Amino acid sequence: MSASAKPSQATITIEGSNTTAVLPLLSGTLGPQVADIRKLQAQAGIFTFDPGYGETASCESKITYIDGDEGVLLYRGYPIAQLAEKSTFLEVAYLLMYGDLPNAAQFEEFNHGVTMHTMLHEQIRRFWEGFRRDAHPMAVLCGVVGAMSAFYPDSVNINDAREREISAFRLIAKIPTITAWAYKYSIGQPFMYPRNDLSYAENFLYMMNAVPAESYRKNPILERAMDRILILHADHEQNASTSTVRLAGSTGANPFACIAAGIAALWGPAHGGANEAVLKMLGEIGDKKNIPAFIAEVKDKSSHTKLMGFGHRVYKNFDPRAKIMQQTCYEVLGELGIKNDPLLDLAMELEKIALDDDYFVSRKLYPNVDFYSGIILKAMGFPTTMFTPLFALARTTGWISQWMEMIEDPQQRIGRPRQLYTGAPQRDYVAIAARA
Ligand code: SDX
Whose CA is nearest to atom 51 of ligand 1? Predict the structure, then answer.
């Protein structure tokens, strides 16, 4: 076989028997081949075992590509660094949904469509009254987004392409309003309605920071930083929350319920909750002199302490988003006139020490997207409880793009993993009087 030709199949032979399974090897545009195991049980009577699906391709997708060894992240083939520098979040949303960058007319129509859906049904406001003021905003996002199907029943038919598109517009357009209102409710300020004259990022900052008592002053520095942060968080192939959205969607659940499931999955500190956890970790470390003791605690497995913002299931090199986030950190702090941010200093020292320590290097643990994002968001005035909701705001675009791709995939079927059963063998019921 020539070096360029790829093998077309793999064979599994069961030891001690003449059972053989021939597995087709499928090739993508980029990345490793995959063994198609859909006939494995029929041919060899076995399943595969992959807790956490670390080595399992759950679907075919054209949206995002990650090379974890090379630190590569592409949205529809475009490198994340180019999009972060040259594009806007709404243009990236179009790219993720439709597969190509829009021309001027296509962008204008898309932008108009999103703008026309930013307001919420007025009765949804009453949902907030049911929450305590100190409710975590992710609880609000889960609840309100999950309930949206009750207010927008004209866009829940998943078999209608136009209804699918309308639900996508509604989710992308309304998630900033819901997120900003979750914040306003937590601080007891009145909700600010979206404005059609502002960009997507600026509209969100307006709803977060404006008050009825005075006119709002736009801040182009924060607008650009916000837009870039949203781009960096928009999609990331089949991560835990996206896989949750796809699994929920595979049952035929409506898109609002699927995105609410994704929000719930993202909330975990091992996933989207890590940005909030990084700030908490830096706060607990407090001072550079405490870093060695903290690192020792992380290395002591019995402590169950993790270096939050480090490590990644796929990236075994730098997360390209972390580098852009670090650069944005400098820009935002500089432009805000924050000369030396103690949190950034502490984070930089922690990163330096970790990257010099074989415990982390040998385990290929590098900073991920969450390591710096919290520092920027704090400098921009966001409370830590709003960090993960911001992640959910951006990732809603990726989730809904992946959901649309899944619904339109002819190979798609209901997700139903199997298991390795290690419980009790079959046994008969014993009356309570006869039990020991
Ligand atoms: C996101 O999947 C995505 O794409 C997610 C995401 C996205 O955009 O959707 O990129 C967003 O979730 C980023 C990750 C944010 N989470 C954190 O920063 C939390 C801290 N990180 C870890 O919890 C962990 O690294 C995970 C959850 C991210 C990855 O977990 P894995 O794949 O189980 O880790 P691993 O198998 O690579 O771990 C290898 C070793 C293990 O030690 P040993 O058993 O070999 O001795 O490294 C250790 C782990 O215990 N390890 C860590 C560590 N992460 C892994 N040790 C200390 N600190 C850490 N952060």
Answer: 311
Instruction: Determine the Cα–Cα distance for residues 68 and 54; give it in Å rounded to an integer.
Output: 12
- For 16, left (φ over 0), alpha (ψ -120 to 50), or beta? left
Output the pLDDT for position 2.
59
Q: Whose CA is nearest to atom 42 of ligand 1?
A: 363
Strand partners, 13: 20
Decide: 66 in ligand 1 pocket, CB within 6 A: no
Gap from CA of 331 to ligand 1 centroid (Å):
28
Catalytic positions, please? Answer: 312, 370
The amino acid occupying position 167 is S
**Ligand 1 near 298 CB (within 6 A):** yes
What residue type is assigned to position 53 of the chain?
Y
pLDDT on residue 399: 98
Of ligand 1's listed atoms, the one at least distance from the Cα of 371 is: 18
**pTM assigned to the model:** 0.95
Determine if ligand 1 sits within 6 Å of the CB of residue 271.
yes
User: Taking 60 as the threshold, does the pLDDT of residue 90 lie above it?
Assistant: yes
**So what's the pLDDT on residue 335?**
86
Nearest ligand 1 atom to alpha carbon 239? 2
**Ligand 1 contact, 369 CB (< 6 A):** yes
pLDDT at 336: 86
Nearest C-alpha neighbor of 250 from the set 7, 89, 58: 58
Q: What DSSP line would sit under 111-166, residue for residue? A: HHHHHTT-SPPGGGHHHHHTS-TTS-HHHHHHHHHHHGGGT-GGG--TT-HHHHHH
The whole-chain average pLDDT of the chain stands at 95
Query: What is the structure's pLDDT at 339?
Result: 80
Does 1 score more than 80 pLDDT?
A: no
The pLDDT, as a whole number, for residue 344 is: 86
